[in-house]
Amino acid sequence: MGLAVKDATLEGTVVGVRCEDGRIAAIGPDVEPAEGDEVLDAHGMALVPGLVNAHTHAGMTLFRGFADDLPLMEWLTRYIWPVEKRMSDDDVYWGTRLACVEMIQSGTTAFWDMYWHAEAAARAVEDAGIRAVTAAPLIDDSDPAKSDRACDDAERSIEKIADSGGALASPGFAPHAIYTVSEKSLRRVAERAPELGVPVQIHLSETEHEVSDCVSERGMRPAHYLDRCGLLGPDTILAHGVWLDQSELELIAERGATVVTNPVANLKLAVGGLFPYRDARDAGVAMGLGTDGPGSNNSLDLMDDMKVFALLQKNAAADPAAVTAGETLALARGDRSPLLSRPALEPGADADFLLIRTESAELSLGTLDAGLVYAASGAVVDATVVAGTVLMRDGRVEGAEEVVARTREQAAGLGLA
Ligand SMILES: [Zn+2]
Fold it and tell me: What is the pLDDT of residues 262-316, one digit of tens each?
């Protein structure tokens, strides 16, 4: 007994799919439901891979609409960080559950998360049924004396998530940024991550200020500094990368790290620059797309961010051919990075996929790729399946009302609503 999808359109061919034990057992024109299968009728729908939101802070749904329209450092130091000090496991659990509902609704099947109380976030991910790498931020105020404690805490969190035995949430290191973490801690993360077999996420080169501080303090630009710390490997995600120069892009490509661009958050926080996508592509840099946290985006609908990404890059290059819809979709699906990529829809692969309403007004004409990037929002997703479990059917996520109500209670308890 498994899950079957009937009459879906996959790249122009009508196919059936059967899933067993979380994986695709069969896919093709002749595949029919087996006796006892749960069946999704996909007539008029396209079968497509899920999206990978490669950088977010899911629990920050609690901060959505709180203290908007402020400069980054003022926003963080005066409004966000003081409240975060009071947050509990329950706050992060429900904030993350709400984020999961939104991502499931808009076609994200996996995400990379950096937030406090990461074990609670991991529990929320397991309960929601989506996939994620959940990592607690490591911050030692750039003080080597605080390094051991901060790193020990991070390792404990990694162990707890790994030991909890969930199939969907996995741990990682998340040193916050080079301006909040000491070199001592960065070096320890570089040493421990491969020993523990976990990836690393870090914010890099988000503001011009971060770059000029790094150059004046260390005599080198941020990516070169991270490389000196040993952190620029294939299991590292660099979020933002707005101010990376050519020498940094070449170094990142050589080391195999992945840059995740977050165009909407960059616009909202008005960082004044744009990720040099074409230079990065030409240099061979692995890349992904993220929403960043719901406090600074404020949406978790990655379909919106696809459009913004493509339009910004076209405009900056004064060239409408600078990036294509297909290229943008590949970026949002994780296909442009070995670290982010998900298996193709074929037998043996994880049964993670979406059914898209191609009869909708937005998608009824033109190619699907162009429709998804330029015309549609996440509202065209009819069904979301992760590990062979239907998380959304007919556009409805089961239990969403309870998640909304509980998250409102938690936000009110923090004085945010
Ligand atoms: Zn971020």
Answer: 999 999 988 999 999 999 999 999 999 999 998 888 999 999 999 999 999 999 9
Per-residue pLDDT at 310: 98
Q: Check if the beta carbon of residue 353 is closer than 8 Å to that of residue 345.
A: yes
Cα angle value 295/297/303 (rounded, 5°):
135
Query: Tokens 């329950």, residue?
Result: 90
Compute the distance between CA of residue 372 and CA of residue 378 in angstroms, rounded to an integer: 9
User: Which residues hold their Cβ within 5 A of ligand 1, which is an ion?
Assistant: 292
> What is the CA(239)–ligand 1 centre distance, in A?
7
For residue 410, report the distance from its CA to the centre of ligand 1, in Å: 22
Q: What tokens appear for 410 in the block?
A: 């938690």
pLDDT at 296: 83
Distance 102 CA to ligand 1 centre (A): 18
- Residue 233's nearest CA partner among 198, 206, 183, 263 is 198
CA of 6 to the centre of ligand 1 (A): 39
CA of 113 to the centre of ligand 1 (A): 9
> If you measure from the C-alpha of residue 20 to the centroid of ligand 1, how many angstroms do you get, rounded to a whole number?
36
Q: Which segments in the chain show pLDDT lower than 50?
A: none
Instruction: In whole angstroms, give the CA distance from residue 93 to residue 100.
Output: 10
For residue 138, report the distance from its CA to the centre of ligand 1, in Å.
Answer: 13
